[in-house]
Amino acid sequence: MKESGFIRRSYDSCVYMRNLNKENAVYLLLYVDDMLIASGCKAEVRLVKDTLSQKFEMKDLGPASRILGMDIIRDRKKGILSLSQETYIEKVLKAFGMSDAKSTITPLATHFKLKSLGKA
């Protein structure tokens, strides 16, 4: 990655960044054989894909919809990006025979009452 001008970020060893200016910054998230490339500049994304595909066998899956078992939900008009593990949770429930289990908003028993400890 360093050969391609990327710097590994200190906060997460799976995150690389190239071009520190805001307009052309490219983020590359790499975890085993999963990769996500993000940038506000489509030309930079294309350049990174072209460069890396010359060095590694890659398959372009188009706009990201899943990464590391999480669903990526985007609303470009509103500028919102969300991550969801709903698909994973449904898979786990099915594996444990709990697909028809009733959901709850809290894991606490319904009779459990919280008491005030005074001023916070």
From TrEMBL:
Give all residue intervals belonging to the Reverse transcriptase Ty1/copia-type domain: 2-108
Q: Which Pfam families match?
A: RVT_2
InterPro entries, sorted: RVT_2
What is this protein identified as?
Reverse transcriptase Ty1/copia-type domain-containing protein
Q: Which organism is it from?
A: Microthlaspi erraticum
